[in-house]
Amino acid sequence: MIAHVDMDCFFVALERLKDPSLKDKPVAVGVDPEIGRSVVTSASYEARKFGVRSAMPMAVAIRRCPELVVVPTDFDLYNHYHFKVKEIFQSFSPMVEMTSIDEGYIDLSGTERLWGGPMETGERIRWVVKQMTQLDCTVGMARTKLTAKIASSEAKPNGLLWIPVETEAYFLAPLPVKVIPGVGATTATLLKSFGLEQVGQIAAAGELLMESTLGTTGRWLWYASMGKYESELLPEWERKSISKETTFRADTTDPQYITAVLHMLTEKVCRRLRKEQKTARTVSVKLRYEDFDTIDRSRTLSQPESRDSSLFSVAKELMFSAITRRVGIRLIGVGLSNLIGSGRQTNLFDEGEWIKGWHRLEAIDKVRSRFGFNAVLAGEAIHLAEKR
DNA sequence: TCTGGGGTCCTAGGACCC
DNA sequence: TCTGGGGTCCTAGGACCC
Fold first, then answer.
1. Residue A262: pLDDT over 70
2. Distance of CA A328 to CAs A37, A130, A250, A258, A293, Å?
3. How far apart are CA A294 and CA A144, in angstroms?
4. CA A215/CA A347 separation, integer angstroms
5. The A103-107 sheet, strands edge to edge
6. How far apart are alpha carbons A235 and A228 in whole angstroms?
7. Is A166 a residue whose pLDDT tops 90?
8. C or N terminus of chain A, fewer CB within 10 Å?
9. Alpha carbon distance A284, A321 (integer Å)
10. How far apart are the C-alpha atoms of A222 and A208, rounded to whole Å?
11. In this model, does residue A331 exceed pLDDT 90?
12. Tell me, what's the pLDDT at A335?
């Protein structure tokens, strides 16, 4: 038996712990549109009554709900509780997979003698979470991860739903196809064009028809629709990429400004890379024009790298070869992937130089972790930091 | 209405090798 | 002179999730 536990309005709930006066008010977590261009990261149920949804532009949210209280995000707080919640999950079973900051799976197989049946265990999880954190959560229980997740999403907020084995198809049949994680707007529209709007219709279409019309997607959807899609619970996985992006307060075409911001983003991304004792073989840049046209460019190096200077020169080259339109740019970003473990990769050609550079960067990272990121900045980024 | 930031996974085509 | 097929790696773009 798998439990999927989803914290209710996680960010809003935590902001309310910090400031109890936010209770019962329509609250949205995100950046105030006066400060920057933003979207709703998390909305309270009071705000949802007005049609406020996460990912909605904040300006729209405020228009829909003029009383909306906008609270800035505090990821340090959310991360702290993420680990707290994870520990609670792990007290029920060592097989825990956290899939995002506010949710995770617990494999409860073999814990029946300890915690009892599914309903009893589910209630116990909810109770312990509440006692230890003061937070509400919703638990979905089923034989597979996918069904458990759908169960929790149907039971929220502050609920518990158990889908007994062999009843999955009955539970899923009347639900809209969009409840299946992985089915977004595009796939839902595609399915609708085949007359498939409820999960039960996918099941009824049969494996052969699903596969012949939608390929591999159709195949797994058919299994999902019956509650028979199996995926392994993975207690730990390694991060596959590190990225940093930013949306400018106003669109720009200024190459010097773009270079300075790109440099700052690269430094931040490299710092994380070294912190995780890794090197990267692939550098990517991303840019978004004012009309939302988004371009990605990447290059894979023959040798893994972790030095700011090398990675920045690649990023800069990629960025300026990617900018072809003479239109305002609203966002740029840098990413590293193809990550390879152990920071101390040696390079036969300039090992001495490399080690020297690495020690310098280690020293910078130390200063930064004590005095903040801006304590050490390269020439190009200093100018920018002062402007902020 | 005017759209964040951090990720993962998939697909399709081209280069290249055997 | 015109033509294989399989495998791997890389790149760009897109769908999706929280």
1. yes
2. 15, 48, 9, 11, 11
3. 36
4. 44
5. A96-100, A103-107, A2-7, A137-142, A160-162
6. 21
7. yes
8. C
9. 12
10. 9
11. yes
12. 98
Residue A118 tokens, joined:
């599914």
Active site residue A103: yes
Which nucleotide, over all strands, has the C1' atom closest to the CA of A286?
C12
CA of A181 to C1' of C16 (A): 8
Q: How many residues does chain A have?
A: 388
* All domains in chain A, ordered by first residue: 10-75 (3.40.1170.60), 169-225 (1.10.150.20), 241-387 (3.30.1490.100)
Spanning CA of A310 to C1' of C16, the rounded length in angstroms is 32
pLDDT at A146: 98
Report the alpha-carbon distance of residue A76 to residue A345 in Å, rounded: 31
Averaged confidence pLDDT in chain A: 92
A93 to A1, A8, A81, A105: CA distances (angstroms): 11, 22, 19, 10
Task: Judge whether residue A100 contacts strand C, using its CB and a 7 Å cut-off.
Answer: yes
Marked catalytic residue, from A15, A103, A168, A267? A103
CA distance A135 to A158: 9
Is A366 a residue whose pLDDT tops 90? Answer: no
- The rounded distance, in Å, linking the Cα atoms of A93 and A104 is 12
Closest by CA to A331, choosing from A263, A283, A380, A285, is A285
Query: If you search the block for the tokens 């617990």, which residue do you land on?
Result: A106
Lowest-confidence segment of A75-79, A141-145, A276-280, A352-356 by average pLDDT: A352-356
